Amino acid sequence: MRTPLAAAALALFTLTACGNNNVPPRSPEPPATPPAEAGNNQGSTPPPLPPPESSPETAPLPPQVAEQEWAPGKYMGQAIRIVGESARQLEQRSKFGFAKEHASLMGAYLKKGEVIDITLSLKQSREYAFIGGGSQYAIDVDLGILAEEDGKVLKADMEKDSAPAFRWRPPADGSYKVRLKLQDSRASGDFVALAVMHEGGYAIPARNLLASFESTLSMASAASAKARKLGKKGLVFHENKNWSFFGVVLRPGEMNTFSGFKFDGSAIVMAGGDSGTDNLDLFIKDSANNILDKDDAPDANPLVVFKPTDTSARYKIGVKQASQKGATLATVAVLDIEE
């Protein structure tokens, strides 16, 4: 017999994304009269993760350049800051580290009421930590794990706050769907972010996190300014029910591929690494893994301008650590050109 809480969880996390995903994502619009206090955590309990002993004097993310010059980067950075700092605190106080086999940090833009999923291959032998967060106008962000085969909710944090988090050990090896939902906001939409960690994962120093995000978001800010000079409105983070920002740890020669992208028009994909790398490569592939475009020049900041020949097709984005200097945290941004 399903409890009322379980029934509510099932109803919530079986919702599909709503809204017109052909509309380019804007920076979240502030309310006409912002309340003096956010009130995001009223009536909730702290997530079951080690809280920081004290707030850091300066959070490591996002870079100030992006905040000042490019509004989408500012709000994406706010969401990444929440999950990045919480993940770093957990890393320092436990045996948890950033996920090894797949992306460990992700970001996306959601309209109020929308959900976004990612399917991950998880192991029964590991305990995982999932940490979510929303940008400044988010009131309620919910996080859940669903069974891939039937959509059953296996674990969820639906407290009314903007930073859901929990630990979970899968009942068996397999693929599981991780879902974030922007349940409520004081704006029409917000950027959300997700960190995935597990026991024995990578330990990433704060300076490496900063260097990687600063590299990619600063590139995006500069590219948006250049697009405006060419008569465009600028760059916005890609939607179409896709994540648009990724952080993944790559060892020398290793590639990680993100699938399922659908593009309605021209897009720009870019990547940056931390201070430990001097060579990253980017690839755009079709569903059969044929390379359609690439930037494999010997530099740490590859960029590809991609115009799809088939707007109904699904595409893949691959990022490769081509340097031999050791593991790096590579971040990838997927942006649409706003005409």
What does this structure look like?
By secondary structure, the chain is α+β, with helices and mostly antiparallel strands. The chain has two domains: 4-19 and 69-199, Sandwich (Jelly Rolls), CATH 2.60.120.380; 206-338, Jelly Rolls, CATH 2.60.120.380. 19% of the residues lie in helices and 36% in strands. It has helices at residues 4-13, 64-69, 71-93, 206-229, and strands spanning 96-98, 105-111, 115-122, 128-134, 138-147, 153-157, 165-168, 174-185, 189-199, 234-237, 245-250, 255-261, 267-272, 280-285, 291-295, 303-306, 315-321, 328-338. The N and C termini lie far apart (53 Å). The model is unreliable at 1-27 and 30-68 (pLDDT under 50).
> H/E series, N to C?
HHHEEEEEEEEEHEEEEEEEEE
Q: State the end-to-end CA separation.
A: 53 Å
CATH class of the largest domain: Mainly Beta
Q: What would you say the CATH architecture of the largest domain is? A: Sandwich
| Oligomeric description of these chains | single chain
Radius of gyration from the CA trace? 19 Å
Overall strand count: 18
